[in-house]
Specification:
By secondary structure, the protein is an alpha/beta fold. The protein folds into two domains: 126 residues, Roll (Urease, subunit C, domain 1), CATH 2.30.40; 323 residues, Alpha-Beta Barrel (TIM Barrel). Helices cover 39% and strands 19% of the residues. It is built from 19 helices and 17 strands. The strands form five sheets. Strands 1, 2, 3, 4, 5, 15, 16 and 17 form an eight-stranded mixed sheet that branches. The chain has a three-stranded parallel sheet with strand order 6-7-8. Strands 9-10 form a two-stranded parallel sheet. A hairpin with a 2-residue loop joins β16 and β17. The longest helix has 19 residues. It is globular, with a radius of gyration of 23 Å. The N terminus is likely disordered.
């Protein structure tokens, strides 16, 4: 088939405006190769018709068709996939760091991330404001789904968390989260009791809310699953269920001091049973491998030369020192917990995948999480999942398909098809061949709004 030129299509589009039956679109992308990560297939020479931020039609070549379009993009035979999702980020640091957090939003877009799942912090009013502004195209940034404040015990580990000491507190806390119109519920383990953790799960189940997060190390992961737990953030909690020593270690009240003994007693046969149950109950896991590796090596790597440090505000950079000091204390004590946790986490990925457990790609970027930069860190996570044994298609699914499915939004996201939200990446190379090709971004389209490479570079330059 002969190549269609931009001019010929433009003439067709303009001429066809005279026809009353001519369809009009905000944006048309043509000459694209659309990647279907679910089926590991590619559809060649496709045209994508977009209006009001939604994909209206997808079909073969538009040669000799009549239509009107505000903008046409020739994909030039390049590869098209849905925008990436980072399923675990943080906006936090208090009122003094609100603007520095806001400044990070364009970084996500620059790396092809059109949606993030905010996993709780202490600047929720600002995050909700940005969420609305982005949805209304008043602010450049990724779509935000947020848990709002975390639920913790009466002595929360993080500022901004909601204190839960009894069942009445749980009801009040969930009432407040529903009033905030959060997208899911996030638990934390500062000093949240096992009973209150279980009660939170039961109450969210009654209300039809999704719940994920940290689990108190005093709690039983399998019991949490039976009560309706939807997800686990990080690998500590599935790990606990995979050790036959878990019950006896729990009685010693060691908290995270039990992690090394759990690793040492990890039982692959027990793990297979745990993973099968997780798959059966549709429990998601966000492994956060990349931050684990970054923090395990934090004393060995000179991050002062990181190019992305130029985009991070001084206030957020200052928060990075906490992790450095913590690593120094761990080294002085002889603890190898982080290194061993990184190793066992990687080892668990392939069995989880093979059991049918849905993995979520999440970077855990944000203030206090040292040198885990917004945007770049998701690509670090995707590469880590690849090195752990996932195929390229499986890796891509952890971001663009499993992300929306966790929130029951698979009907609107996850593929380039009619009726889906128009969050699209045009890539120079095929990421099914190499996961690194996800970085070769030519154009980002967020809700139908186009960010070409020049526009993305300008946004980044303005952040420096």
């Amino acid at each position: 088939m002969k190549k269609i030129t931009y001019l010929s299509i433009l003439l067709i589009a303009l001429f066809s405006c005279e026809n009353e039956k001519t369809k009009s679109y905000d944006l048309v992308i043509y000459n694209a190769q659309i990647i279907d990560a679910e089926n590991e297939s590619i559809s060649e020479n496709q045209s994508i018709f977009i209006s009001e931020g939604e994909i209206v039609e997808v079909r073969k070549s538009i040669e000799n068709e009549k239509f009107a379009a505000d903008r046409l993009i020739d994909a030039g035979g390049k590869f098209v996939i849905p925008g990436l999702w980072d399923n675990h980020v943080h906006f936090r640091g208090g009122d003094t760091l609100v603007e520095e957090n806001k400044d990070l939003l364009p970084l996500f877009l620059a790396y092809g991330i059109t949606t993030v799942r905010d996993a709780g912090g202490d600047i929720t009013p600002s995050v909700m404001e940005w969420k609305d502004q982005i949805a209304n195209s008043e602010l450049d940034g990724p779509r935000i789904f947020s848990s709002g404040p975390k639920l913790d015990g009466d002595k929360p580990a993080w500022p901004g968390s909601i204190k839960v000491a009894n069942e009445d507190d749980i009801v009040a806390a969930l009432d407040s989260l529903e009033n905030l119109e959060v997208d899911y519920v996030k638990t934390y383990d500062g000093n949240l009791s096992a009973d209150n953790y279980y009660n939170i799960i039961e109450e969210t189940e009654k209300r039809g809310l999704k719940v994920t997060g940290h689990m108190p190390m005093s709690a039983d992961f399998m019991k949490a699953i039976s009560l309706g737990l939807d997800g686990a953030e990080h690998m500590y909690y599935p790990l606990k269920a995979c050790s036959p020593a878990a019950d006896s270690l729990t009685k010693l009240d060691l908290g995270y001091g039990m992690i090394e003994p759990l690793i040492d007693t990890y039982d692959p046969e027990l793990a297979a049973e745990v993973f099968a149950k997780m798959s059966e109950e549709n429990v998601y896991v966000t492994p956060t491998l990349y931050i684990g590796k970054t923090l395990a090596e934090i004393l060995d790597v000179d991050h002062q030369q990181d190019s992305l440090l130029n985009y991070i505000g001084p206030g957020i950079q200052k928060t990075y020192q906490d992790r450095v000091e913590g690593a120094k204390r761990a080294k002085a004590s002889g603890s190898k917990m982080r290194e061993k946790m990184e190793e066992i986490s990687v080892r668990m990925i392939e069995p989880l995948q093979n059991a049918g457990v849905k993995l979520l790609a999440g970077s855990d970027c944000g203030a206090f999480n040292s040198y885990v930069y917004p945007g770049e860190s998701l690509h670090g996570e995707l590469n880590a999942l690849s090195r752990a044994g996932l195929s390229n298609a499986q890796v891509i699914k952890t971001s663009i398909i499993n992300g929306p499915e966790f929130l029951d939004l698979g009907d609107k996201y996850g593929s380039v098809k009619e009726g889906k939200v128009a969050d699209i990446l045009i890539l120079d190379e095929n990421p099914l061949e190499s996961i690194d090709y996800l970085k070769k971004i030519k154009t980002v389209i967020k809700s139908g709004k186009v960010y070409d490479r020049e526009k993305l570079n300008t946004m980044l330059e303005n952040l420096r």
